Automatic annotation (TrEMBL):
<feature type="binding site">
    <location>
        <position position="195"/>
    </location>
    <ligand>
        <name>substrate</name>
    </ligand>
</feature>
<keyword id="KW-0312">Gluconeogenesis</keyword>
<comment type="function">
    <text>Involved in the gluconeogenesis. Catalyzes the conversion of oxaloacetate (OAA) to phosphoenolpyruvate (PEP) through direct phosphoryl transfer between the nucleoside triphosphate and OAA.</text>
</comment>
<feature type="binding site">
    <location>
        <position position="325"/>
    </location>
    <ligand>
        <name>ATP</name>
    </ligand>
</feature>
<dbReference type="InterPro" id="IPR013035">
    <property type="entry name" value="PEP_carboxykinase_C"/>
</dbReference>
<keyword id="KW-0067">ATP-binding</keyword>
<feature type="binding site">
    <location>
        <position position="325"/>
    </location>
    <ligand>
        <name>substrate</name>
    </ligand>
</feature>
<feature type="binding site">
    <location>
        <position position="220"/>
    </location>
    <ligand>
        <name>ATP</name>
    </ligand>
</feature>
<keyword id="KW-0963">Cytoplasm</keyword>
<feature type="binding site">
    <location>
        <begin position="238"/>
        <end position="246"/>
    </location>
    <ligand>
        <name>ATP</name>
    </ligand>
</feature>
<feature type="binding site">
    <location>
        <position position="287"/>
    </location>
    <ligand>
        <name>ATP</name>
    </ligand>
</feature>
<feature type="binding site">
    <location>
        <position position="259"/>
    </location>
    <ligand>
        <name>Mn(2+)</name>
    </ligand>
</feature>
<dbReference type="InterPro" id="IPR008210">
    <property type="entry name" value="PEP_carboxykinase_N"/>
</dbReference>
<feature type="binding site">
    <location>
        <position position="61"/>
    </location>
    <ligand>
        <name>substrate</name>
    </ligand>
</feature>
<keyword id="KW-0456">Lyase</keyword>
<keyword id="KW-0464">Manganese</keyword>
<feature type="binding site">
    <location>
        <position position="201"/>
    </location>
    <ligand>
        <name>Mn(2+)</name>
    </ligand>
</feature>
Length: 539
């Protein structure tokens, strides 16, 4: 077997059972990975220097093809209502078949960290058969110093083979696509999908499983901090398409990370060393920091259409998918944190993409309301973020990240509430979805409005303003905010048909109440009392 690059020879691929490989390319950096990807016709070079690749039929995650090994250690720890299961025997067969499929192939290996806090990080080794996948995961996770590689010993191993096709009868899955994790052996197998996001979310799933036991809250959120001496940090919870990446990229604040973080007794820390930003309809004017990364060598653009002659990206072209992306190292953002760490947050923002257009652009939540909305996780799945999704669809994704939560939501909810109470954190619910009507009749909330409201929330001025009580949801909504049209703050005023608004709001309230029945036995009475009401109450 030929080896290229630096690694710990005492802990090579044989340790995981990968033998008879043609070659392993170890810890290659961007220039070499570009060469390999282009030589193999895996992608194209865009004007400005980004590498552009397509992912075939899988242009988003495949949550229904994700499985956890059900054994003695996980039987009473995993939220099985939310996680598919396979037996240890099925996983063993799958692993053997992965090993057989890899024989004779050239693989790429990256030795990386998940977690900026050394006390809570995981050493993740990722084997891929595609060079561009190796660059993607190198961009997204934390890269060790070069002199650390000779002593690196992996804890978690990911084997990513898009050309492998699972056999449902043999492997206990439902299709030719499989993402299987064995928490006991600390192995993740990804087959049948070239969507690179499966790798990063597998590391996130692993940390979501192990960190609560250490008293650390893992979170599907972005984070930033003020640039002054206080360093006040803020967390932004939300699913794909709600604005986590966009809103945390604020030139007036320091970016900690855009997607996955932990909150320990020492503060918050990024799980990653890069960002994975949506690029559909990306604008240089609206999002200059993210746009600039698409013109840099080292960035990976996923399913972005480029001009055949000029190689200029067309970010308005959704012919491949709405879920176009770019993956780049965190230091491509000028104001990004070099450490990936910050102190305890002063504000938490829960982002929702309201497809019905009846929720206000911002509301202030009590501790009980925060717990209610965290467990509810209302948003709309945005077209393209999952396979087969072509239009927005209202959904409830508990903890704003149900697909990545192996444990019961109450584990994460109770951790969050304890930390919020201990550190006196203000919580805000922000709607980046629709206003003036739902999907098809209304319009998307203007980003300038969202940014202005967030600025007021984070600088402390919004908490001092006058509030009204929302007649359906009961939370506090500001009456007036400088720089924001008063009408926008009151959703009913943006609708032409007031009766249609009332009907739609009542329907959404009913959905909230029906969804929360599964959590009622896990929360205190004040959280149950925070649910919206079927009939409007006086404001």
């Amino acid at each position: 077997m030929k080896t290229i690059g630096e690694f710990n020879a005492a802990h090579g691929p044989e340790a995981i059972g990968l033998t008879d490989l043609a070659a392993v390319h170890w810890n290659l950096e961007a220039p070499r990975l570009y060469e390999e990807a282009l030589r193999r016709s895996e992608g194209q070079l865009a004007r400005g220097g980004a590498l552009v690749a397509t992912t075939g039929s899988h242009t988003g995650r495949s949550p229904k093809d994700k499985y956890v090994v059900r054994d003695a250690s996980t039987e009473n720890e995993i939220w099985w209502d939310n996680n598919g299961s396979i037996t240890p025997e099925q996983f063993a067969t799958l692993l053997d078949d992965f090993r057989a499929h890899a024989r004779g192939k050239e693989l790429f290996a990256q030795d990386l960290y998940g977690g900026a806090d050394p006390a809570h990080r995981v050493r993740a080794r990722v084997y891929t058969e595609l060079a561009w996948h190796s660059l993607f995961i190198r961009n997204l996770l934390i890269r060790p110093e070069r002199d650390e590689l000779s002593q690196y010993v992996p804890e978690l191993t990911i084997i990513d083979l898009p050309s492998f096709q699972a056999d449902p009868a043999r492997h206990g899955c439902r299709s030719k696509t499989v993402i299987a994790i064995d928490f006991s052996q600390k192995i993740v197998l990804i087959g049948g999908s070239a969507y690179a996001g499966e790798m990063k979310k597998s590391v996130f799933t692993y940390l979501n499983y192990v960190l609560p036991g250490a008293g650390v809250m893992p979170m599907h959120c972005s984070a930033n901090a003020s640039l002054d001496q206080t360093g006040d940090s803020a967390l932004f919870f939300g699913l794909s398409g709600t604005g986590k990446t966009t809103l945390s990229n604020d030139s007036s604040r320091q970016l900690i990370g855009d997607d996955e973080h932990g909150w320990s007794r020492d503060g918050i820390f990024n799980f990653e060393g890069g960002c994975y930003a949506k690029t559909i309809r990306l604008s240089r004017n609206a999002e200059p920091e993210i746009y600039a990364t698409t013109e840099r060598f080292g960035t990976v653009m996923e399913n972005v259409v480029i001009d055949l002659l000029t190689r200029v990206p067309d970010f308005d072209d959704a012919s491949l998918t709405e879920n176009t992306r770019c993956a780049y190292p965190l230091d491509f953002i000028a104001n990004a944190s070099a450490t990936g760490r910050a102190g305890h947050p002063k504000n938490i923002v829960m982002l929702t993409c309201d497809a019905f257009g009846v929720m206000p652009p911002i509301a202030k939540l009590t501790g009980a309301e925060a717990m209610y909305h965290f467990l509810s996780g209302y948003t709309a799945k945005v077209a393209g973020t999952e396979r087969g999704l072509t239009a927005p669809e209202a959904t409830f994704s508990t903890c704003f990240g149900a697909p990545f939560m192996p444990r019961h939501p109450s584990v994460y909810g109770n951790l969050l509430r304890q930390l919020m109470a201990e550190h006196g954190v203000d919580c805000w619910l922000v709607n980046t979805g629709w206003t003036g009507g739902g999907v098809g009749t209304g319009r998307r909330m203007p980003i300038r409005v969202t940014r202005r409201l967030l600025s007021a929330a984070l600088d402390g001025s919004l908490a001092q303003t006058e509030f009204r009580r929302d007649p359906y949801f009961g939370f506090s909504v500001p009456v007036e905010v400088p720089g924001v049209e008063t009408q926008v703050l009151s959703p009913v005023e943006t609708w032409t048909n007031k009766a249609a608004f009332a009907e739609t709001a009542t329907r959404l309230v009913t959905m909230f109440r029906e969804n929360f029945t599964r959590f009622e036995s896990h929360v205190d009475a004040d959280v149950r009392a925070a649910e919206p009401v079927a009939a409007p109450i006086a404001a």
